[in-house]
């Protein structure tokens, strides 16, 4: 997730306006920043790695001439956060500049095609292909206007984008286009703006025009003109008045970042399905030939590893060992060796306990792989191969969208491994791949259809002293994650363990009204899980079940239930089944008067051991 912004002013300099707007978009990405303006038929660019303030101190982002320009604050997905990969990106002639938020899935083939036509690329980003595509279109057909050249270029793109293009050839225009990534226009008497989000221009105007998927917009001093990308048909749309405060706007109207990020999960899951195939294939080669594979992480990321251990086992018939980062050295420090592979999972890529485990493994010549949300983080630098999980910045301290994104990447890895090891048929692969593609919609359905019900359950149990979270099989990981969420943001002591463990001790805690959350996908564990539900119910527990839609048998046993759409394969079930638990923790926190975004005693990234 990145932030783009630009403007055309009737008078005054664009650069300071762009700089201030990028600061208001910094929550969307902050590992590099850049601006480009047009003046006297020339393109002026300043960009660098690092946060906006750091780059401004070095380059003075306000000091660019001209009253037309674009800017970008980056959250790296392709290419480390270095100056060379910072936006704006230009074409060979340096007459065209592009800023982009999104992921171009087919950038590698487009890049090869353009290189074969003589284009020279500077960066490792997907975005740069857009600038060269437009240049190629204008070269092939000089009679094209800039808007037409952009229209043709975006017609070649697969994936998500919100782009803005400026060119010395038409220095009075900005051409924008969107598919899936957000884009909004702001208008006032003196200027016209485009941005990823309303907060960027809200202090300048509250008149906004939402741009839809598949639309291109031509901005000029006369105003804006919307066209459909498919057939360049004109679209008319009037500005709307925005009555949000700036603070509300940053949260897009949500009361907290955590709720916004829970709701962002469908979009994030779609992004995780845009991983570059060759990185997945490359990463899959290492666990395949290792003598032992450790999955190392902390907290929520550890729960993703726990779920992944079931995925690797059930799909690829590969034994992997989930290990909590802070325990790795004690548990395996002496035995890990050159034949070991460590897959470290860390959304921040900076968790000290996880990195300590990685360092120990590296010292003993083990192969280290990384899965992270922060390209350019320490974990990416110490990993032999890493994958970016493409979740965008997660502001809430509690991990939500980064967890489900991690699960999506890990199950894709398990599928590649399964195929490489010949453990699943092509039909099974296709079936699971199709179900994975549908997961974003499934999560959308759960949020839309069940959020209100979860809110009511939170109200009913808001004073409960503790909870059990129980599951079997891969749902054990889901149970652990639901418990962590409730503990860390609602401060409710909760206990999670494999449901089969109940009679080996914990069931002694159960008394009348004791809330027990069961995660109940209709998988192989269902039968034994039913008996666990019965044994809890027999002791007076209040049963809260996350069930598959229409599961009448469990509905009869449960005091409360939340439904998840049917037909989710077992190995994918943690992704949809965790969403009601995230919402339960969120609404319990709100009911108990806590701010879910800033839970006491916790930091977003635990960089100390
Ligand atoms: C999750 O909600 C917590 N904030 C915490 O457990 C977190 O998952 C853990 O610190 C690991 O962080 P990482 O993924 O950045 O390594």
Q: Could you provide a short overview of the structure?
A:
With 609 residues, the chain is of the alpha/beta class.
User: What are the distinct ligands in this entry?
Assistant: 2-deoxy-2-amino glucitol-6-phosphate
> Can you give the mean pLDDT?
95
Number of domains: 2
CA(first)-CA(last) distance: 29 Å
Topology:
Blueprint: E1 3-9, H1 14-24, E2 32-39, E3 42-49, H2 52-59, E4 68-74, E5 89-90, E6 96-104, H3 107-116, H4 128-140, H5 146-154, E7 159-167, E8 174-179, E9 184-187, E10 191-195, E11 207-210, E12 215-220, E13 223-228, E14 234-235, E15 240-241, H6 246-250, H7 257-263, H8 265-272, H9 277-289, E16 292-297, H10 299-316, E17 321-324, H11 325-332, E18 340-346, H12 352-363, E19 367-372, H13 378-382, E20 385-388, H14 401-420, H15 426-460, E21 467-471, H16 475-490, E22 494-498, E23 515-520, H17 526-537, E24 542-548, H18 552-557, E25 560-564, H19 574-591
Parallel strand pairs: 16-17, 16-18, 18-19, 19-20, 21-22, 21-23, 23-24, 24-25
Antiparallel strand pairs: 1-4, 1-10, 2-3, 2-4, 5-6, 6-7, 7-8, 8-12, 9-10, 9-11, 11-15, 12-13, 13-14
Helix pairs in contact: 3-4, 4-5, 8-14, 8-15, 9-14, 10-14, 10-16, 11-12, 14-15, 14-19, 15-19, 16-19
2-deoxy-2-amino glucitol-6-phosphate binds at residues 298-301, 346-348, 351, 354, 397-399, 488, 605-606.
């Amino acid at each position: 997730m990145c932030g783009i912004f630009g403007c055309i002013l009737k008078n005054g300099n664009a650069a300071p306006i762009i700089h201030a707007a990028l600061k208001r978009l910094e929550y969307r990405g902050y590992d590099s920043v850049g601006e480009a303006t047009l003046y006297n038929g020339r393109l002026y660019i300043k960009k660098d790695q690092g946060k906006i303030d750091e780059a401004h101190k070095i380059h003075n982002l306000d000091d660019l001439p001209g009253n037309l320009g674009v800017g970008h604050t980056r959250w790296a997905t392709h290419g480390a956060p270095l100056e060379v990969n910072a936006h704006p990106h230009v074409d060979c002639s340096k007459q065209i500049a592009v800023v982009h938020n999104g992921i171009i899935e087919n950038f590698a083939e487009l890049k090869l095609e353009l290189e074969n036509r003589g284009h020279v690329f500077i960066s490792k980003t997907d975005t740069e292909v857009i600038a060269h595509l437009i240049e190629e279109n204008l070269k092939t057909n000089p009679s094209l206007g800039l808007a037409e050249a952009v229209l043709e270029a975006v017609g070649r793109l697969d994936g998500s984008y919100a782009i803005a293009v400026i060119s010395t050839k038409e220095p009075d225009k900005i051409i924008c286009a969107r598919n899936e990534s957000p884009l909004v226009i702001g208008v006032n008497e003196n200027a016209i703006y485009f941005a990823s989000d309303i907060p960027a221009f809200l202090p300048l105007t509250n008149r906004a025009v939402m741009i839809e998927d598949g639309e291109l917009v031509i901005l000029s001093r006369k105003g804006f003109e919307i066209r459909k990308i498919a057939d360049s048909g004109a679209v008319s749309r009037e500005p709307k008045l925005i009555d949000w405060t700036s603070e509300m706007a940053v949260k897009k109207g949500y009361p907290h970042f955590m709720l916004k990020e829970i709701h962002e999960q469908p979009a994030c899951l779609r992004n995780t399905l845009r991983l570059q195939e060759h990185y997945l294939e490359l990463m899959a080669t290492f666990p395949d030939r290792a003598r032992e594979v450790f999955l190392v992480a902390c907290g929520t990321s550890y729960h993703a590893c726990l779920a992944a251990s079931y995925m690797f086992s059930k799909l690829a018939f590969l034994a992997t060992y989930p290990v909590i980062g802070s325990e790795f050295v004690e548990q395996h420090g002496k035995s890990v060796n050159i034949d070991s592979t460590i897959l470290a999972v860390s959304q921040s890529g900076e968790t000290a306990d996880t990195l300590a485990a990685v360092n120990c493994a590296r010292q003993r010549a083990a192969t280290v792989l990384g899965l992270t949300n922060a390209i350019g983080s320490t974990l990416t630098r110490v990993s032999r191969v890493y994958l970016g999980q493409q979740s965008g910045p997660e502001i809430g301290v509690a991990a939500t969208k980064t967890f489900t994104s991690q699960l999506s990447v890990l199950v894709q890895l398990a599928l590649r491994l399964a195929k490489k090891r010949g453990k699943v048929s092509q039909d099974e692969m296709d079936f699971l791949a199709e179900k994975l593609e549908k997961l974003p919609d499934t999560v959308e359905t759960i949020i839309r259809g069940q959020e209100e019900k979860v809110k009511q359950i939170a109200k009913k149990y808001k004073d409960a002293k503790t909870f059990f979270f129980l599951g079997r099989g891969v749902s054990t990981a889901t149970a652990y994650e639901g418990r962590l969420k409730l503990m860390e943001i609602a401060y409710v002591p909760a206990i999670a363990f494999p449901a089969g463990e109940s009679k080996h001790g914990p069931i002694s805690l159960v008394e009348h009204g004791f809330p027990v959350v069961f995660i109940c996908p209709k998988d192989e564990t269902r039968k034994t899980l039913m008996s666990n539900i019965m044994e809890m119910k027999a002791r007076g527990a209040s049963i809260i079940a996350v069930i598959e839609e229409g599961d009448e048998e469990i509905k009869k046993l449960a005091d409360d239930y939340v439904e998840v759409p049917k037909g989710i394969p077992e190995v994918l079930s943690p992704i949809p089944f965790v969403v009601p638990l995230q919402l339960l923790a969120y609404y319990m926190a709100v009911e108990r008067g806590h701010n879910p975004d800033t839970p006491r005693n916790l930091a977003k990234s635990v960089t100390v051991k």
